[in-house]
Amino acid sequence: MQKFRFIALCTGPAMALLLLLIVAIGWALYVSFTDFALVGRAARDPQWIGLRNYLRLFRDPFFLHSLDISVKFTVGSAIIGQCLLGLLLAVLLKRKDINAGIKTAVAAAVTLCWVIPDIVVVYVWGAFTAPSGMLNTILGIFGLPPKRWLSEFPLETVIIANIWRGTAFSMILFSSALETVPPVYYEAADVDGASPWQRFRYITLPLITPTILIDLILITLWTFGYFTLIFGLTGGGPGRATEVMPVFIYNQSFRFYKIGYGAALSFVMMLIVGCMCLIYFVLLRKAERIR
Amino acid sequence: MRWSALPAYILLVLVFVGATLPLIWLLLASFDPAATQATKLPANPSLDNFLHKAFSARSLRWMGNSLIIAGITAVLSLAVCTFAAYPFSRESFPGKNTILYGLLALRVIPVTTFMLPIYILFAKLKLINTYLSVILTLTTLNLPFALLLMKGFYDTVPKDFEEAAWVDGCGKLRAIFSILLPQCGPGIAVVLFMTFMNAWNEFMIPLILLRKMELMPLSVGIFTAYGEYGAVDYGFLSALSLIYALPPVLMYIFIRRYLVKGMAGYVK
Predict the structure, then answer these.
(1) What pTM was estimated for this model as a whole?
(2) Residues A234 and A150: beta-carbon distance below 8 Å
(3) CATH of the domain at A148
(4) Fewer CB within 10 Å, N side or C side of chain A?
(5) What residue in A sits closest to B20 (Cα-Cα)?
């Protein structure tokens, strides 16, 4: 009995904080069944409207549009960009025939982009892609016409900006996974006269596959829920060209003040993210079994 | 240099240039009192942006707010997880694994998922526009990471030390302080630094919870000043952004070793 009192005493504050989050989620669940808003009659006296927020959601073309944009943003910047580039960098940084100083400089530069706060990334990329910004200056040197990147190619621009910002995570994760590959495997491959591609394909890749899968699911989760970069650079625009789901929820709730609808949207997002979380757990279990 | 390494060199140089180019503008603009979005060497380079503008009353206020929010969040997170991690490392009790899985899930779920629930809760509690709402939220969101990390550090300390202390009549709580914690110095440092850094960098939570200019931390302040209509003062904002980015960069250099280990925890 005394043991449990001790445990309760130790974990009490932490559990209280977690309870706060659970209460918040519960309250939001209730709100998602009402027409609660920040202004007007619905702010003073919200009405119970049952499932109407949820039903509306599937008829809302802008919701489906935001899902579509989210998928494009996630596939482009996380799965194709960050993961592939991160893997490529991790492999290159491990090669012995490359100058150590260059390797350190590249790793430091890529990591720096990841460590600086998100809002600084927004500010820097806003200027970099501005009509008078550096990107157009550089293209001008090659005789290419200037573009208004955030208006003409908004989604492409935020995808590239997110690759710039986030590749370091995958790079670092893969680098530490590569450290665990026993060097004798490569030595044996050298004896057999394997090409660099064969070494990668038949030794490196199979051994770090669990890490790649976990990296993929983690950055998919985070990119799907990523808010600051797009909100800061475009606010979801121009029009709705970059309105990913978190930005859509923010705009519905805090620009159009439809809190009830925003809450319903949050629960749909929770469902999607929850499913990804389950995949993560399954992968973790499998990775443990392989080791 | 072997010729076979040439493609690798070209790629690495391209990545390096691509990574640093956008930042070069930031650096140049911060020394240029007449900075624009265009990249140019400052005509009259000066430290004016740093010495005067970046420390104006308004931005000092934002810095103070950031320090208060991040500082209290870090200390509170450490205090909470120091105790909470102990039973998870040393005792067995019903529901332990469920809670650990819950924490693991909470650690990887993006904050935006909880944007509305958190806003609704603090709106109902009438705590919008208070530091308390932001600090409680950030502490809760940092908790899974901090608790799991601290548990990892506790797990590496053999139980024998505490048991010896108990035999000598030392209470359990006191044993945490005088036996366990002194052996977890790096853990304490990493928890403090990481939670500080997360809270310092956070943008969305203060954006929705703090709607008054004088309460804003640096992240929201810089964003607001950037979005202001009319002439944006790029020199001032660049200098302020550099100052704002400095603590996370320094902390990263300081705890890099442990951070990489902590990231491996996502895989293990």
Answers:
(1) 0.88
(2) yes
(3) 1.10.3720.10
(4) N
(5) A109
